[in-house]
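Before the break, one more example. Copy the sequence into your notebook; we will annotate it together after we see the structure.
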Amino acid sequence: MSQNLGLSLFIISSFIIAITVQAEPAAISYTLDNGMTVVLKEVHTAPVIAMQMWCNRGSIHENEYLGYGISHFMEHMLFKGTEKRKVNQIAQEIREAGGELNAYTSIDRLVFHIVIGSNHFDTGLDIIADVTMHSTFEPAEFEKEKQVILKEINMNLDAPDRIVSRLFWSTAYSVHPYRHPVIGYRELFTQVTRDDLVKYYQRTFVPNNLTLVIVGDFKMEEVKPKIESAFKEFTRKELAPIYIPEEPPQIGLRRAEVEKEVNQTYLEMGYHIPSIYSDDVYPLDVLAVLLGEGNSSRLYQQIKEKLGLVHSINVWSLTPTYPGIFGISATLNEEKRIHAESAIFDEIKKIQTHPIPDTELLKAKKMIASSFIFRQETVQGQAGQLGNDAVTMNNIHYSETYLDKIRQVTAEDVQRVAIKYLRPENLTIAVLKPKTESEIQKTEVRSQQETERKKIKKVILPSGLTVLIKENHDLPLVSIRLVFKGGVVYETDQNNGICNLLQRMLLKGTKNRTAEQIAESIAQVGGKIDTYSGNNSFGVTIDILKDDLSLGLDILSDIVLNPIFPESALEIERQHVLAAIRSQEDDVFPAAMKLLRETLFTVHPYRRLTIGTESTVATITRNDIIQFYKQLCVPKNAVLAIFGDISTETVLNQIQKVFESFDTPIIPYREEITESPITAIRTTTKTKEKQQTVILIGYHGIKITDPRRYTSEVMNAILSGQGSRLFDTIREKQGLAYYVGMIPVLGLDPGMYIFYVGTETDKIEIAIKSILAEIERIKSEDVTDEELIRAKKELIGNKAIDTQTNSAQAFESALDELYGLGYDNLDQYAMRINAVTKDDIRKLANDLFKPNAYALVVVKPKSKNHAILNGQTSE
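Here is what the structure looks like once it is written out:
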């Protein structure tokens, strides 16, 4: 039904465990007189509304434009002005209302969506209606966006996962339009005219082909007449018939392989399966979970953990409205590929020939159920579910049917579909692999209501462990975040990457549980467990249903207090990390970011990546990790946040019990290293066998505890994002880039500000000059009142959207407390953002962006050779 990683199209609910959810009015669906479907659902957990317009057309429905990418082109143009809104006015209005807007195109639908504060409902609806009915596709914008998409096509040609995906679909399908990329082929896309686009828009965006979905904080009786009024002039039209050729049965194995300048192999394999309308969808979805969903799945445990044949592996079942694919994706070393393929086939054979244990079947069903619940935390997630129900199945209650069908799946059903579809003659394999050595030329709003946030309870245990607890009974979910100071700022040149290895090894076994048992225990109850490592911290994350909180806390304490760091697992993880380090060079932007760090910093740890280097990772020993663990995994270096459907008193008692032995007086020492100011431009240039050019300009930054961070955020909102200065000037007006913006990186020590642009080789010099000109403008001129107000509204609104979930709130509060900002720092966010002045921005820009005090990195294609700003010198 959908790619299993995230189960993005699954429409599922809990059916195995009892769930009590706060009552909300049920979703309703009705049709306007003009034929447009409207789906509404009230959700009053946060002052936020999601509005989505679903067009029942995608890349497979383009008829004479098949392969031209015209649906995707139209998606890009929808926000480029209407009869009453100028170019960029739509994005500006949304930002001023503190909202977000975006769009996407897939094989069978085009969706544009807005998330906005509930007090701006009328603005959001007016924009949705205006874009739907009155987009103008201005000729100048048409030409600019055409160049943008051409750059996007180039980006896809550089991305290994996109390359292997395109190879797979073009091989698996011989006549069905699934074989064509959504973005289109360059040679066909360049032929699209504005007249073509207008014609396609007029025949596609008709009310009887659209579904409006609105979920959030509103009253149905109040918004129904507003919706009817907004679309009263929208008239029904006849829909042209769409010809979709039927894909003939596959009668033999298909294999396609290409070689590129990559450092690891990307494997995609898949079997033809029926569409969503088949009853086989349900056992196929369960099969996908059994084989490849999560760390406890069969392929992950056998192929990755036990045999060490892959670096990553996942399974997905895509069943749209036409027959789809049951797929398996993996990354691995080329020398292990044949063995890995064979091992995958062995696991499929076991499913086909051996009974599936009831416990494993139940676990898969529960994982599907819990995935649905976690997606209900945001209004966006609920709107997406209802939209898919309505458009794909013409039934907003399809989830109930899907749910019931999943519950009825038996082990025999799963085995039956595995035998029926997972046959060698029905298989397609696509491989993107490294070039052979002889061919390689090596080169160097409110984020949450304040009354809710004040419910956070802070307790410091006798051991020194800080605990944050917040009750939220909207959904039967609990999010646990245990964070430690750590990351690259605690590493040295000799052990760079050790914190990343440590966090990976925490899940590889304890004195009481094997790695498989840890993964299996969480997966069986539909939970999720993971670890992370960054520049300044690392930690463990668990999301679980409320009835299983005791299990979650027990596992958390076990992996923190009793890790054994098995040597065999370390060697496997080491190989995965080494492969990931090498694969960084496969994608232009990460490779450029690595160079930027190394150029901007000379002595500070921020010059290093969290993943480490090949030389350091290769020499880190088990004893090194144990000593690093003993230094950092101590209570006075940690914050534990538990947010969700809990009782404060009960959970505090549970924490004290399971962490009773977590008691050591150690306070980790960190040597603070000061980076000398840059006195001259530092330039690094690198060529790669890629299509695109990436330019980065980096400046030294500020600490996360610096009060100017809020000024920094407002400045970034003015400079970066849709409708921003960099976007409007460099992407829209000058047409120099597909993407452009600024990334502020703050940390325990002064971080960095990175300006970036993706462009073409012959535009390097002008792109650099344009970025520098915008930097000088923010330093010398006051921002306008309009810019300042819009940026503040955008930031406050986005924070409301981003912190809807328990997990987001718990993580942010834990890190704020860990870094010394205070667990309730979020309460002051809106006030501090609103306090920023024009003078603050100009002063900060002048403090940060000193003339000739930056690092410049350019990564460009090998085939072209252009100079970079005459007269620049390297320090």
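The longest strand covers residues 265-273. The longest helix spans residues 139-158. Try to locate both features in your own notes.
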